[in-house]
Automatic annotation (TrEMBL), chain A:
Record-linked InterPro entries: SoxD (IPR006279), SoxD_sf (IPR038561)
One Gene Ontology molecular-function label: sarcosine oxidase activity
Protein name as it appears in the record: Sarcosine oxidase, delta subunit family
GO biological process terms, semicolon-separated: tetrahydrofolate metabolic process
Automatic annotation (TrEMBL), chain B:
EC number per UniProt: 2.1.2.10
InterPro entries, per database record: 2Fe-2S-bd_N, BFD-like_2Fe2S-bd_dom_sf, FAD/NAD-bd_sf, GcvT/YgfZ/DmdA, GcvT/YgfZ_C, GcvT_C, GCVT_N, Sarcosine_oxidase_asu
Alphabetized Pfam families for the sequence: FAD_oxidored, Fer2_4, GCV_T, GCV_T_C, SO_alpha_A3
Domain of life, per lineage: Bacteria
Protein name (record): Aminomethyltransferase
Gene it is expressed from: gcvT_5
Keywords recorded for this protein, A-Z: Methyltransferase, Oxidoreductase, Transferase
Chain ranges of the SoxA A3 domain: 499-583
Gene Ontology MF terms in the entry: aminomethyltransferase activity; methyltransferase activity; sarcosine oxidase activity
Domain Aminomethyltransferase C-terminal: 890-975
Top-level class of the enzyme under EC nomenclature: transferase
GO biological process, one term: tetrahydrofolate metabolic process
UniProtKB/TrEMBL annotation, chain C:
Top-level division of the source organism's lineage: Bacteria
SUPFAM superfamilies with a match to the protein in the record: Folate-binding domain (SSF103025)
Name used for this protein in its record: Sarcosine oxidase, gamma subunit family
Source organism (scientific name): Pelagimonas phthalicica
Amino acid sequence: MLIPHPLLGLRDAQEFTYLGDASLLNRPDGMAEGAAEALHDYLYLRDNPAGEHRELWFHEQGDRSWLVVTRNTLTHEITQVEFAADVARQKGADQ
Amino acid sequence: MTQSNRISGGLIDRDLPISFSFEGESLQGFAGDTLASALLANGKRLMGRSFKYHRPRGVISSGSEEPNALMHIGEGAYRTPNTRATVAELYDGMVAQSQNAWPSLAFDAMGINDLFSNFLTAGFYYKTFMWPRAFWEKLYEPIIRKAAGLGSLSMQDDPDVYDKGFLHCDLLVIGAGPAGLMAALTAGRAGAQVILADEDFVMGGRLNSEVIEIGGQSGSDWAKASLAELASLPNVRLMARTTVLGAFDHGIFSAVERVSDHLPLSQRAGRARETLWRIYAKRSLLCAGATERMIAFSNNDRPGIMQAGAMRAYANRWAVSAGQKVAVFANNDDAYRTARDLTAKGVEVVAVIDPREGVPDSPVQVIRGQVIHSKGRLGLKSVRVRKADGGVETLAVDALAVSGGWNPNLSLTSHQRGRPDWRDDIAAFVPGANLPVGMAVAGAAAGDFSTHAALHSGAEMACQSLEALGQPVTPANLPEAEDAPTQITPFWYVGEGKARKWLDFQNDVTVKDVKLAHQEGFESVEHLKRYTTLGMATDQGKNANMGGLAVMAEMTGQSIPQTGTTIFRPPYTPVSMGALAGRSTGKDFKPTRLTPSHHWAQRQGAVFVEVGQWLRAQWFPQPGETHWRQSVDREALAVRKSVGVCDVTTLGKVDVQGKDAAQFLNLVYANAFAKLPVGKTRYGLMLREDGIAMDDGTAARLAEDHFVVTTTTANAGPVYRHMEFVRQCLRPDLDVQLISTTDAWAQYAVAGPNSRKLLQKIVDPEFDISNEAFPFMGCAEITVCGGIRARLFRISFSGELAYEIAVPTRYGESLIEVLMQAGAEFDVTPYGTEALGVLRIEKGHAAGNELNGQTAAAHLGMARLVSTKKDSIGAVMTRRSELAKDDGLRLVGFESMGAEILPAGSHLFADGATQEPANDQGWLTSACYSPHLGKHIALGYLARGSDRIGEVVDAANPVEGKTLKARVVSAHFIDPEGARLRD
Amino acid sequence: MTKYTLFPRTAFGRDAAMIDQIGSATLSERPDFAIASVAERAGQGDLSPVLTGAAAVAVSEWQDGLGRTVFWSGPNQWFVLADHDRSEMLAAELKTELGDQASVTEQNDGWVVFDLQGADLTPILERLCPINLAEFGANRVQRTVIDHVGCFVLCLEPGRSYRLLCGRSFAGSFAHGIKTIMGSVAV
């Protein structure tokens, strides 16, 4: 696969390390009320869609950016790639 | 017999004769020959024995689809099995041997299998060798494997080397026949980056095998001229001898280039045998041509029976007549070219046998009818023909050209599950609509069989491909070429005749086998393939699949497209394991990382051990030491008694800087870091979010906004990645920056009661490292040996007074030499990883064996370390009931009750308990002989371990059938109060 | 003063730099560089003009300036090369210049610099790494993998001159991998 890096263009997926569902960005506050339940859901309840999936890839042999890649798990078509830091910052701004 | 079947013309070079041997016999061919063409030229029709029945077989094709003429080529370690003679370019001194035949190709003892063929039909071994079950692995399978099979390995190391490489292009054209050449010309002239790859050693595809004209030139001359033009274009890369093996996601292709395989051994030295290319193509165009299929009839596998297209390729390209008297059996007009071309070359063509209603005009006698039988066990002698009028005629021929039509070579279009479409007009599958992204198909591969159609679609598809890239192209004028329509009536096998009608030559599958499979319920094509083995092995069904599908379709009363096809998968043709390995073999399998003291340690005669990619000194044998334990015991005792030095550069180091660096570490580590003062180091436990321990190490605060974090050797990469995850994905709002500095500093542990005295000799005098000025867990940036900057950490893995000192790596080798000189008065001792292990086990420090992905803070006895006053990764989950329960596993120490070692991995049971899973109470993680205590000790996890100090347990080692008694003790065998550290 | 002296050694454990010519290509070790990494602290903007004393360094490029080579290594991150004899304390110098604007880390001995030079290096490089050489002109830099070793490749002159950096502990394997291909291509 080729991942269209937002800065570097198409890069071979071999340069990346895969982590998983981009919902890992939504880490609950460990000090908040009900943190145990929230962290349980965060850790163990994931969707496993046959189709569009937002997932985290690390450009280990590149610029060391974590990316959120939107990939169709049936066709491997990649429709969007964002810096995870930007996504996380936006999430913070939204809250 | 010297090239008795060599005829005039051809693209061979008669000025370059080539000597080779086959079955021990010396023969001659010419440059430009393949092994197959040279054997045919020498009248050798018998080239192999079949897989199951050991039937005598000859070559049926002139290309990579060949199922029969498989050879051992080369001698000794160079011997390569299963080489298709049709693609083996002849070279001087080639040694070829048939395979699967004993004692000889002409008399094969296992040919007896053929007489028992009734017992060896589809699925025979599933049925016959079912009982007794235990016999399968020990008796039946080895016998079957010996009797049935392909070539055999030399059983020696591969003496060849293989390269890998990476190429990029706008357009990858696969196949250099008329369509591929026209496409490459179109795109190349437009300035696009083009790669034209072809598996043949002469590009041009069928243009070199047919008698056709393009633009007033012969097809092969036009190909030559086109190739010359392409070679002159700097943006075009011509890759002959290069097979595109697979089409992967997003335009990535694998291709293997045969670099030196076709050269005499003497010319190969230093060259790679093959190069495996990874090609990144923005667009691709498949111009892979088509493969001719056979028609099944009784005994249609005699040597001398071959594809009609192959027979005229041998005549036209290689100037070889397949026989003295030949006939043609075909259901289509295309095969008539064989009769025409061979006649023109002076070969006697007895007749064309055609089962169709209307047969075309031909200068050769045409018999409406079918071939119902053949004779000639080791080589065709005659064929029997049932004429349409009911009569029977026997034709004395020694070669028969067969054509059942052509199948577009669409393998690569289905590597990503693309399904082909059926076309009635050519009675064949063509690539379907769901092609791999960016791929188009042209020429015969798309079902465009005439030369004009191939040129036209090649140009057209090249234009479309470049336009899709935003590079508009003016289509070139196409040269004139024949545009004969395809005339074919589907005809798959001859009904008449009792003898076996072969569909799959490679796997000895007959029409009857397919019918039997249907009878037994294996109707799906995927089941048919697995049950009969139709379409397996080196040719992957290129020859046989269609025939098998047609028979199955007939049996089920469905159409062929309804019956469907199996999926083609990479590789397109067989590929050497060596090419896949490339240079990553033996010691070069992975990179080796060397420590700064490596060369010094080598000079000391150290024994090395691989730790991940690192090579570390394991111990340093001294004169008179004959057993590793002597060296390790000495080194460990020396540290406890005086001072030792160990290279610990391999520990991962991450530089953590930024205004919020402390806040960041507070999140990453389970214990508190925010208030760590500058100039202090702290142990840190890093958890996974699920509460399991990930890694441990230290963090030294060099400045308010600057920490140096260490990780374990093995986890340096994953921990850095995790820290970047936390930084970028969880807390992008924090001002913190990370970078690895593992290799930048040479770091040594200097451990033992005399360590300070030793260091004081090399630390520059302006730095006070006395106990008062530089206490336990201190850290500082200092200079040593007259101004060389260094970092000093007062940390201890051994439990002794100890330091770690780091200097820029270029001074690392010199530093250990200096430490040895300066430490001579203290009998300073270098120690390796083995003594390091002994020392840390004695001290009860956890390491990789203890942090094995199953253990939480409580198990390590560190539950209280996990701060509840702050949020940190894994803290919440650490407190979940199962991980935090009071009766869970605890890390404790064990002493052997006897003189035997306690093997790590032993499982623990209460004294005398039955050894069954329900009673399992834990396991030993690390074990060693403690020279300090004079006994065998271990660390391990034991249920309620910390409450069971003094108890005796059983350490069971079922692998060796042993159980040892061990006494539970504190994990801190040495100085549990830690007084030595602070001394 | 202590009476002991430390001497530098190259990544190959030698006093002199490794240099090897195979065919028409030469691989030489360059221990004469001081190296530092610079990362922008939050909200400081592009620091590369400060580093070069001139123009900004574009993504995937390198620029010379102030006697240094500055190359892009990631978003808001750069590597700086300078002469080791003159600037052994490069990281400290840069920290003084940049203060709280940047996190600066000494990398002098974290990386080994190699120069690969020759008449036609394309056949070598395309057997070593997946860089698209047709688009890899002068002033380009790319982090990639050669023979399983992560590295930076800088193009000094397309086809004829490249600068490579790998982790110091990998130097032996890295050079071995490159020299193997130099030999394979030279035949």
